[in-house]
Design brief:
globular, 291 residues, 14 strands, Metallo-beta-lactamase, Chain A, alpha/beta
């Protein structure tokens, strides 16, 4: 098998507080690995952080003697804080995100009126990854797929027969991502989903979140074939116009994610906290009537 066709091993770690799945992608014990969409625990009532979820990732990496080369983000998440800096400190690796993160940084620097020193060039991250760019995870080759729509900077990572699509798609009985955040667009998301669902039918798709309906068990792996047949929002036969109408009407009923205000202003910094103020404490801002 060539590096393009190697079948990666995928281990998902579900965070029940944010309904988020962090993935460790590798090629067996002792191999190189990538971590995708990590979670830093955050109590919005107290403003305190913990590393319980990230420590589960570290435990798995150490138990399998993996060497972390990449800590990847599919986008600047609005529903959880990234643990990328903590994982980099403990395990090494480069923090990577899609190169369009600069567009998101520009929008939210204005919304949060961030400090003048905050750079809009993505330099907070170790690597800005371009659409169709390839990079190695040891013997594995990963390919970047730009999949905007939920945000302008969303990317998916294809590693062998596996695709990590961020918030673009959910499990078939949950549907698709919202498009009402700044820079989101339902028509663009429809095209991005089409790109993913044009892959071979047996391609494994790994979701960033699961919100199980009807008390079903948590699940986060599906296939292109299953999504095309069963996704409640975008199965085969759903036109772009139908999807845009559904998504627009549905998004108008949704509340903002509970952690969007702290999460976005930290995640556009590659997971670093804002600069400490004169008293030695870091603060996040709460803009009034801005979102």
């Amino acid at each position: 098998m060539t590096p393009h066709t190697l079948k990666p091993q995928v281990h998902g770690i579900f965070d029940s507080a944010t309904w988020t799945v962090t993935y460790v992608v590798h090629h067996g014990p002792g191999s190189a690995a990538a971590i995708i969409d990590s979670v830093l625990d955050y109590d919005h009532k107290s403003g305190r952080t913990r590393t319980t979820s990230a420590d589960k990732v570290i435990d798995y990496v150490n138990a399998h003697d993996l060497q972390v080369q990449w800590i990847l983000e599919t986008h600047a998440h609005a529903d959880h804080l990234s643990a990328a800096p903590y994982l980099k400190q403990k395990l090494g690796g480069k923090i990577g995100i899609g190169d369009q993160i600069t567009r998101v940084q520009k929008v939210f620097k204005a919304i949060f009126n961030l400090e003048p020193e905050f750079q809009l060039d993505g330099s907070q991250f170790d690597a800005l990854l371009k659409d169709e760019e390839e990079f190695r995870i040891g013997e594995l080759i990963a390919r970047v797929m730009a999949v905007p729509g939920h945000t302008p900077a969303c990317v998916a990572y294809q590693v062998g027969d596996a695709v990590f699509g961020g918030d673009t798609l959910f499990m078939p009985d949950v549907g698709t991502a919202r498009c009402d955040f700044p820079g989101g667009d339902a028509k663009t998301l429809y095209a991005s989903i089409g790109k993913i669902l044009s892959l071979p039918s047996e391609t494994r798709l790994f979701m960033c979140h699961d919100y199980p309906p009807n008390n079903r068990p948590v699940a986060f792996e599906t296939t292109v074939a299953e999504q095309r047949a069963k996704n409640i929002h975008v199965h085969d036969g759903i036109s772009e116009a139908q999807f845009v109408e559904m998504r627009t009407q549905r998004d108008a009923t949704l509340e903002m994610p509970a952690l969007i205000l702290p999460a976005v202003q930290i995640n556009i910094r590659a997971g670093e906290m804002p600069p400490k103020e004169a008293n030695g404490t870091a603060y996040v801002k709460i803009p009034i009537n801005a979102l």
